[in-house]
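Why does this matter for the project? Reviewers at the last site visit asked to see concrete outputs rather than summary tables. In response, this paragraph embeds two records directly. Each consists of the residue sequence and, immediately after it, the corresponding structure tokens. Nothing has been edited or filtered.
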Amino acid sequence: MPADWRSIPRIGLAFLLIAGNTSLHVLPLFTLAIVKALVPVPGFRRWCSRGLAAIAESWIGVNSACIVRFTRTRFEIEAVSGLRTGGSYLMLCNHQSWVDIPVLQKAFNRRIPFMRFFLKRQLFWVPVLGLAWWALDFPFMQRHSRATLARHPELRRQDMETTRRACQRFRGIPVSVMSFVEGTRFRPAKHVVQASPYRHLLRPRVGGVAFVLNAMGDVLQEVLDVTIVYPDGIPSMLDLMCNRIGVIKVYIRRHRIPAQLLDGDYEQDREYRVRIQEWINELWKDKDELITEALAKGPA
């Protein structure tokens, strides 16, 4: 969808409002994060975590309102009842664009506990946002190539240890643990290199999900299986702000966590590894078919 040049002043105003909203929220966010770091009292830190989440939800709410008000993008979000802000969820989603994040935030903000994403460590250095993600206890993961892991297998334990520490922090508060299971954004070239068996998805990386289930399975209510579809083509953030996206579709499936996946050693137990891989692969197969059906309908 081409950008409407007459909308430039409106889009500029939206950018200014989002920047101003960010500036307004990061100061109390950083202040409370510093207080939390300086006072090593578990109960007080849990209270601080709830306060930080409330600030972030306010920040997200204003940003989402700006996107709705200043763009013509239509969000078609599948209606789901029974979600609770007092529970804890594991959310799995396909990953195509940075736009995925504001889409998920719009769909779920204040409907479930505040979402924590697993982020690449390089994102810590993003101005302002990197520190905000740190303050909100987002785990930063060190991604290694297969070749690097083959030479240094001990590096596999780094991300597992990061996940373990994050899950330990999350156990004391309601939380939504969000995972882009593919580990990277979908691109046709990556799809070819992986020889992915799915038409619209990369191969899922299961190890992180397994570790979260092992560490937090007893406090997670269920899995939220989210599928984002862009009928107009995979967009950029600039496309979103410049009215180049007609419609975004969000499908939500809820799954009970199979009891046989709550206890096992993904690294050492081959049978457990096969069970969880088969479970995720079945979810990915259904997700791929759902995307195919949604794209066949085309933009509304």
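We now turn to the second protein, recorded in exactly the same manner.
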Amino acid sequence: MAQEHQLTQLDSGIRVVTEKITSVRSVALGFWVRVGSRDESPAQAGISHFLEHMLFKGTPELSAAQIAETFDGFGAELNAATSKETTVVYAHFLDEHLERAFEVMSDMLLRCTYADLESEREVVLEEIAMYEDEPQDKVHDVLSTAVFGDHPLGRPVIGRGEVVGALTVDDVSSYHHTRYVPGSVVVAAAGNLEHDRIVELAQRCLAIDGGDAAGSLNGGVPGVSARRSFYAKDTEQYHICLGGMGIKRDDDRRYALALLDAILGGSSSSRLFQEVREKRGLAYSVYSWASQYLDSGQIGIYVGTREDTVAEAVATIATELERIREPVPAQELDRAREQVKGRMALSMESTRARMTRLGSNVLLGLPLLSLDETFERVDAVTVDDVVALATVFYDSTKMSAAAVGRDEDRFRSALEPISASLAAV
């Protein structure tokens, strides 16, 4: 069974948050750092992600191969991820390996040697090239640029090849020293563990010079008028996104937004999936999403469709955007409510999901609500709450549009019924 989380702040400023689950034999452990691509200057675009790669390349005690062998020997999963506002190194292993796993991960986080930087640079450049070859992923960054303009939230997390190609050991180590400070670090763990033991390990292994959390270098997201952005690529489909600014992460309307997103395009019973795919056969993949950041957010819709169905697909989405701004039938809202609650509850059966919830919420300043408390907030959402959000954020004539495809003229023509006034970027 699971108990309530425990949270301790060390004298150094590092926070440790855990949740004990006695019904499992494993531990999910994550070291979270409040740094991501939005903290980069244009000349650093991609350094947060590149640093994440370098954490795996060796410590004073272990080479990259030995790190991999250590966790493979545990039968463990070891990985990392960088987002626009966070970096995390995480692992999932049997509880008996906790101490050694913590020691190695601590060394990776704080005492990486930047070994094999040149070879890892090539790996990251290949990753960037691979990403450029995936239009269904690339279009999301094309949309972010249209929505956020020159702000770092408009840049891809993975970075730019010309920047990554020029990074030196001094560049990366200086960034590491500046951003990986105690106030920016959260240790999160869920599984068969004792909180005091995790605190003890953190005190012993995580001796970091520095102080309070480093503030974001790039706050104050500017308002940007809706724009059109096109990336030319010889593809079989046109990959299209419509989107705009959303709500920040601590906005109480996030529960209503979760229901709105579920109704619009977040499931196989959603309006977009049923109209665009099931009824009209215009796409294999169509969905909506919402992201929240420190001081802003983004909402969006994606569809991948063939060249001869671009106009019909965009027109169908525009129709659904008009409909979503009308009162939602109670039965549809209730179905979305149960879907959102069900996904939340089922995700909590994973120790990694619990660790992620603990680490990200503490790092980003969100309350650690119990599942019942979260359900209460979801249940409190009304039809009026959903309509109010849809009215503000889902007006198709005020949304930016992005596409990856062969012919910009075809894309621009498809947008004319929505808004012919979108400025190109």
